[in-house]
Every structure is written in C-alpha cells, then in structure tokens.
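Async update (no meeting this week)

Hi team, since we skipped the sync, here's where things stand on the single-chain job. The sequence we agreed to prioritize is pasted below, unchanged from the tracker. I ran it this morning and attached the output directly underneath so nobody has to dig for it. Comments welcome in thread, and please keep replies under the output.
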Amino acid sequence: MKYEGRISRLLEVREGTSMRTGQPWKALPFIFEFFEQEEDRFASFVKLETFDTKVMQQIAPFIAKDENGKAIIKDGSMELLQNVNVRCDFRLNINIFNGKIYNEVLLRDIEVLTKAEEKPNEEPTSAAIKDNSFAELELADDLPF
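Output:
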C-alpha cells in the first residue's frame, strides 16, 4: 500500500548490534498520518520504522535541536520544526511467536517530499497552514469532545 501523508511524530532512535552479523544498526520509528481515500475526513495513523540511514539524514534538518546540537525530546518524541510530508509504501503481515499471533507493519519504501525551510525558527503563516489539509482539519474540528 502506497500513501502520501506526513510524519506526525518522530520517536526516539533505537540502536543495537545484530546478533547474526555483529554489526551495529539504527532504526528511526515514526508515526505516519495519512488519508486512505481523498474524501476521508479523519486521518489514519500507523507506526512505521526505517533502517535507511539516507532517509534519516533527509529527516535530520526537520528536527529541533538544543544549543548543544542534541535533538529536543519531549514525551518520547523528537520535536519537529515543520511538517514533513512523505510517501510511504508499506504492507501488513503477521508473525507467530510462542503460539501467539502479532500484527506487523513493514515499511517497504519511504520518500521525503518536503524540503527543509531555510529559516526554521519563523512561525508558519496562515497561508502555509491553509495549504496543509491536516492542519486545516485540525482547525475545523467540530467534534463535541
């Protein structure tokens, strides 16, 4: 399944060493927000994870950093400077482990569509917010709760 959407949350990078090869690895988990159909009013969310270091480098300019150059992490998420629009291709699968069945979402491909702004500290203009259908829906929410 291939969808265009945005990264709504970047979670903390996971790191480890492969038991099979002994090589170090890094994974960047994130929450992908998308509309399954154009006419949908509410977005769908899925947690995906990329091991592609080239993609991590493309996303790095969108991460807010403190004065020491470290990513600002709040509630287990890295703070984003602006929306990051991406195109993700993923598939659903199951794993059976110790007799239990687990759902699995496998990221096949990710393409970063947004270019980093030159002046990331500026507040977005109302015109920039109107161009983003996600922000428009958030502002127009008429739910009673």
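Quick observations from my side:
The CA atoms of residues 62 and 81 lie 5 Å apart.
The beta strands are 2-11, 14-17, 24-34, 44-50, 73-74, 77-78, 84-97, 100-112.
Reply here if anything looks off.
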